[in-house]
Prior knowledge:
- By secondary structure, this protein is mainly beta.
- The chain folds into three domains: 281 residues, no CATH class; 176 residues, Chondroitinase Ac, Chain A, domain 3 (Sandwich), CATH 2.60.220; 88 residues, Carboxypeptidase-like, regulatory domain (Immunoglobulin-like, Sandwich).
- Strands 32, 33, 34, 35, 36, 45, 47, 48, 50 and 51 form a ten-stranded mixed beta sheet that branches. Strands 2-38-37-42-43 form a five-stranded antiparallel beta sheet, with no helix packed on it. Strands 16-17-23-20-21 form a five-stranded mixed barrel.
- The radius of gyration is 32 Å and the shape is elongated.
- The protein starts with a strand and ends with a strand.
Amino acid sequence: MTLLFALACNTTTSESIYADDPIGRIAGEVTDMNGDGLEGVTVSADGITAVTGPDGWYVIDGVEPGATVVNFINQGYAKNYKRATLHSWETVSVDATLQEIDGYDMFDARAGGLAVVGAVEVDFGGDSIIDADGNAFDGEVVVEVTYLDPHSDDMKFAPGDLTALALNRSDPYAKDATEPAQLISYGMVDISLYDEDGNPLNVDEDNPATVEIPVNNGDLPSVYHLADGSEQQTWSFSPEKGIWVEEGAGVVVEDEEGELTFTFEASHFSWWNCDQGFVPTCAYGKVVDMLGFPVRGARLDAVGGQSSSTVYTDDDGNYVVSVMVGDTVNFSGTTPVGGKNWSADHSVYLYGYGSSSADCQPIPDIEIEVCREAGIIMNDNLELHVSGGDEGANGDQLRAWFWEPPGEPWRCEDMWDKVDEGTCVVSDPSDYPQIWGYDENLDTTTRSAGEWLEFRTPRDTYRLDEEEVDGNPVYMYETLELRGVKDVEVVQNVIDLQGGDTIRGNAPGSSDAYFGAIENEEWVVIPEEVVLTNMSGPQGTIARSGGLTVQFDGQGNDDDMMVFVTPQQPEGDAIEQGLLCREADDGSLDISGSDLGNITPGWASVSVYRPEFAWTTGPDGLPIRVQAVSGAVIEADLK
């Protein structure tokens, strides 16, 4: 393997970190009634608009953190809305399924008229229609109607969830709905008004329309049943708040065949709902990934026979969600990674502890099998022993690079965990970049953490300016390549890493890469140095058949020693397969001739490391691997 030696580095006093205004992304999939991706849907949030591609996937960039409502509009389909909460520098998942309208009817705005689509009837008074600017409209009105039976699979087309704001029953003068509620629905309808050119219209709130929709009790317990003559609350969906809001009341009528209808007045048109509102109980839990890291901004859907709520996890992956007592609820966590959604769930019966967060029912952690690893920070405290060079030259290195998380679980597998003590495995460095370091075989595009990245030891601060390798932004020093040539002077770098050093770091961040500032993060502690005492045929020829023995100052640590034997390659060639060995930290390691026979003869580096692995959390909440090694690199000619 080409040995890398740092030529120079800059020591600097840390400056104040400039951080761009925090932003985030919303991403998701829009599907039709068959579950197929729906192309050409206009999706908007926070004043930013995107259009779905052929697979129904969309991404909205540059959304300000906080609560927002995502709008989904496609002509010929019922409108849909979803609520989301973003933290900074992250991506949250917001999906929607759109239902084709049931049909449409038309009437003259000046005369008024009755619009009938299926079992839904809407009676408009004369001169009751206004345009988007609030002006009276006197042309032909197109009425698009979509009805949902909430006791069927149609609920996947419903906007938002069934959380709501109810009127304060203790205040007879209350006009605004402010009390949290969980709804049980009996029928929903979306009514949209357009002129003949497709421009949106609405009804004048002073001249409301009368609406009649079918309702039913489904499989609800009898305590929740509607009956002939029942007065029931009406609720409309607020596109601004992303939640159902209590508006008034209507009347239930049962016909001769036992079918129920619900009649109410609508002073505006969006989605309307015939519901009962109940004070909910609550549940709480946490969403984590396969590494055990909390997934912040994960969408948590709680759906049961009487429950339907959606919330987003906080910075620590925690959530609190409203649900109904006595309901069996499926809690599903979802996060978008690598251009697709990843999910996991638990189904839990809710006994109902109470309605306050202090009395919530706990839910087991939801672990999503997804790789969210988004970068690596490497710290190498090395002594270099090169044939023809200076004994014990300083080979310390500092490196880092970051990438978009890949998603596929195997990407988070660590080859080191698969090696048993006292054994060696043949490994391909391109499969396990977290051990080998940056290589042109990496099939990922790295992303920027800003113009520079600082590493700090207790003695110095080192600033690594961003540079490009193979067109990708990375943080490392320029290097001099040495290939075992005799009598070549080794240029010693000026980095001074020592065992026991606590490594900290800063970076300014980059809004273009959705990467916030790293501010004085404590990353890892450098392990104690490895001091070599002897090696069979040091810096010379080694017969592979005879094996390789190395003595060092064993520390007796529980953590094992990491040993690489890696063939050096001609300039420009990728690193071929090498050996990765795991040995006890007892002062001596032996690599058998049969193991050495698995790699190419010729000059090779033998790297003996005392490793330390850790994790840190990136500004976007994604896990970043941190690797520190103290050790020695020996050059040998394997015959």
